[in-house]
Specification:
Layout lengths: L6 H19 L5 H9 L4 H29 L3 H37 L8 H16 L5 H10 L3 H33 L8 H19 L2
Length: 216
C-alpha cells in the first residue's frame, strides 16, 4: 500500500482548490471591475492593474489578521467571527458604493448630458473606493488554512499556503475580469454608453447584495 500523501501536500492542494473556488464563485471578485472598467473607459491593462491591486489588498488583509491570530494563539472560531463581520461590512459598503455611484451617474447625466468617459472626480475616486472595500473584505477560507501550519510552527508550509492562495486568488480574478471585459466588448454593450455608468453602479450594488444576502 502506498504511503499517504504528506500533510503539507494535502494542505496545499486544499488551499489551491479553495482559492480557485473562492475567486470564481465570489461575483464581487470580478463583476465590479468589469462593469466599472467599461463604464469609465479604462483599458484592459488598467482594469487588470486595478483588479490586481485590490486582489492583493484583499488577500494581505486576511493574512495580517491570520498572522496576528496565530502569533497570539487566538482560537480559529474567534478569527472566523472577525472575518464574517468584515465580510458583511465589505458587502454593505459595496452596495452603498454601487448605489451612490449609480445615483451620481444618473444625476450627472440629467444635469450635464455629457460623455460619461470624460475626465471627472469619479475617475480618480473609483479605484480607491474599490481598494478600500476589498481590503476590508475577507478571504474566509484562508484563516483556517493558516492556523494548521501556524500552530505547528511550520513556517515554510505557512508561507507556501499564503503564496498559493494569494497567487491563485489574484490570478483567477484577473482571468475572470479579462474574460468579462472581452465579453462585454464582443457583445457590443459599449454602444449604450449613455447608460453604462448607471448600469455599472447597479451591477456593483447587485454584486454586494449577492454576497451579503446569498453568500456568494
Amino acid at each position: 500500500m502506498p504511503d499517504p500523501l504528506p500533510t503539507a501536500t494535502v494542505l496545499l492542494g486544499t488551499t489551491a482548490t479553495l482559492a480557485i473556488v473562492h475567486a470564481l464563485l465570489g461575483v464581487d471578485h470580478s463583476l465590479p471591475f468589469v462593469a466599472l472598467g467599461r463604464a469609465r473607459g479604462w483599458s484592459l491593462r488598467r482594469t487588470l492593474l486595478v483588479t490586481a491591486t485590490c486582489g492583493g489588498g484583499h488577500v494581505l488583509s486576511s493574512v495580517a489578521i491570520g498572522a496576528v491570530g496565530v502569533g497570539l494563539g487566538i482560537a480559529t472560531d474567534a478569527l472566523l467571527w472577525i472575518e464574517s463581520a468584515r465580510g458583511e461590512l465589505a458587502a454593505a459598503l459595496l452596495i452603498g458604493f454601487g448605489l451612490a455611484y449609480a445615483a451620481w451617474a444618473a444625476w450627472r447625466r440629467l444635469r450635464t448630458n455629457d460623455d460619461p468617459t470624460r475626465r471627472n472626480p469619479a475617475t480618480r475616486v473609483t479605484p480607491w473606493a474599490l481598494f478600500i472595500v476589498f481590503v476590508l473584505g475577507p478571504c474566509e477560507p484562508l484563516i483556517p488554512l493558516m492556523v494548521v501550519p501556524g500552530m505547528a510552527h511550520d513556517w515554510l508550509t505557512l508561507g507556501a499556503v499564503i503564496a498559493v492562495f494569494g497567487v491563485l486568488t489574484v490570478g483567477v480574478m484577473l482571468a475572470a475580469v479579462a474574460a468579462g471585459h472581452r465579453g462585454v466588448e464582443l457583445l457590443g454593450i459599449g454602444r449604450w454608453s449613455r447608460h453604462t455608468d448607471v448600469a455599472a453602479g447597479l451591477v456593483v450594488a447587485a454584486s454586494g447584495a449577492a454576497v451579503l444576502f446569498l453568500g456568494l
